Amino acid sequence: MIDFFNLAVQYLPELFLTALKYTLPLTAISFFFGLIFASLTALVRVAKLPQNEWAAALLQIVKWIANAYVWFFRSTPLIVQLFIVFYGLPNAHIALFQSAWVSAITVFSLNTGAYASETIRASISSVPEVQKQAAESLGMTRAQVYLYVVLPQAARISIPPLSNSLIGLLKDTSLASVITIVEIFYLSQQIAAANYKVLSMYILVAMVYAFFTSILSIGQHYLEKYTSRFAQ
Amino acid sequence: MIQVKNLSKHYPDKVALEDINLTFPADHTTAIVGPSGSGKSTLLRSLNLLDRPDTGTLQIDQLILDLAKPLTNGQILQIRQKTAMVFQEKALFTHLTVLKNLTEGPIKVQKKSKEEAESSAKELLKQFNMTELANRYPYQLSGGQQQRVAILRALAMSPKYLLLDEPTSALDPELEAQVLRVLKELAKKEVSMVIVTHNMSFAEQVADQVVFIDDGHVGYAGPTDGFFHSNEKRIKQFLGAMSF
Prior knowledge:
The structure holds two protein chains of two kinds.
Chain A: H1 2-46, H2 53-75, H3 78-91, H4 100-125, H5 129-137, H6 142-172, H7 184-195, H8 198-227
Chain B: E1 2-11, E2 14-24, E3 29-33, H1 40-47, E4 55-60, E5 63-66, H2 73-82, E6 83-86, H3 98-108, H4 114-127, H5 143-155, E7 161-165, H6 173-188, E8 192-196, H7 200-206, E9 209-214, E10 217-223, H8 224-228, H9 233-242
Parallel strand pairs in B: 3-8, 3-9, 6-7, 7-8
Antiparallel strand pairs in B: 1-2, 1-4, 4-5, 9-10
Helix pairs in contact in B: 3-4, 3-5, 5-6
């Protein structure tokens, strides 16, 4: 026990520092872009086809692309996606993402975006149709109906599932270790390989993950409380 | 005046409305009555284009639209600025307080300033003795209060015509009475109203004219008295079925 305590004092600062330098930025940047992909995908998937034939055909194609995107990222493992982008594409001379960072952020944000788009789509659909009609009957345009009536309500509904996605993403950044990013899990492996304190090092890194995900859970709690003021 | 001519709407498996010709005069109250599923709600919703008829013309004051042609957003907006709709239930914006429900349209659509919209909303609330509800959210209101707020939200847009789609059908009788009292007051002020209702005694007391829709057709359109004392077999049958 004293041994563990000493290891904690010795390595926790380094683990926290690495989390601040790698794990948290990877999570935050990927989640930011993930939400953008998710919102765009969700809006495309709920959009009704317009009357104009050409516009309808174009939207239909975009819908197919959106569906294919969600399908691909939900039906393949994250680690395989990382390998395809970081090792596979350069190997085929498609050197779009030579940087491990860019590869990681690309894959994490597209992956999170695919899951979150389903969340956002469901939240949008859960806003009662009659409220949309009421907004339209006030003279709002389709865009105004979404901006002022649908999205504020959908946002509240989507907070718990999106928080899940964010917490999942933070933990998944440990997979960045497989594409050479020395984030906290990789770091703990390196230290354990040197000092043979395998169990202690993995418990320490688990504690660091739990620390940050707990902060996110607390944040979720307050956000839910704030946004639930208009519902029972 | 709202006027529809040769208005028809067909669903793949059913005719909702067939060759409807009607006039809804300004400053009058028209009650649309008829059996469930007869097309009366579709007719009302066609008047502000929430439902789009296949053919026919819709005229509101000077604006005449050919409904068989695609409509521009501008035309739809013009129609909606002259009309305001009150729905059966649960149409208030649940994320906004009563006051904000009343100011959302004036601010976002009519581009009024927040101060101006709020002061007229407060004036409306005061006029209908609902000032104390201003800062509540819809879930904190009774069904009757919700419907009265929905009526005020429509009035806050200063529409020329108020359209109401069975505004009391989801309410208990005593709550219904609260709402009907408000409507009766409005009718006295010569607000132009078109109301779809199941409440025959309300229609008889308040409406200046009655439109009876039966199976997608106009079964009667004329003075209220004439409808309730009609010798027409189908009308007698309908009125008989509505009482007990």
